[in-house]
């Protein structure tokens, strides 16, 4: 008996992780169970017999015992680790059981843990912002030296990306304060 598999290519920005969780949970309610999450694609199997709650966590960590302990901590609470993406997003799922309180499906139940996760993401966003700023400065120099118009266009793209990234980081901060 073969399972029906569906691959999707829906992309969410890192600060939209709640929207991604909501979408993955809607997919589960409609019978499509996540088996592999990702930045640029997701893989589901058709299974109407179960429903899962999907949660995401961002945590950069070295391989080895610390990574194993991180996964074990979730498994002790009934979460199944599906996979980790190249950029350190971790996908977890927990089978929904009737009568279980909603709080049983939260991976962060205290504000300190939520803030720690958001700070990890903001660190990544600020690192990317610094890289874009450095690229812009390098390309300004290259343009000054060569006069090649491509550099000027690239500078514009880098600065637009930088503004977009910083604006969305700010939006993420504002959204966090509203919860």
From TrEMBL:
Lineage of the organism: Bacteria, Bacillati, Bacillota, Bacilli, Candidatus Onthocola
UniProt key word Transmembrane: yes
TM helices/strands, residue ranges: 123-142, 148-167
Pfam short name (any one): DUF2812
The protein's name in its UniProt record: DUF2812 domain-containing protein
Keywords from the named record: Membrane, Transmembrane, Transmembrane helix
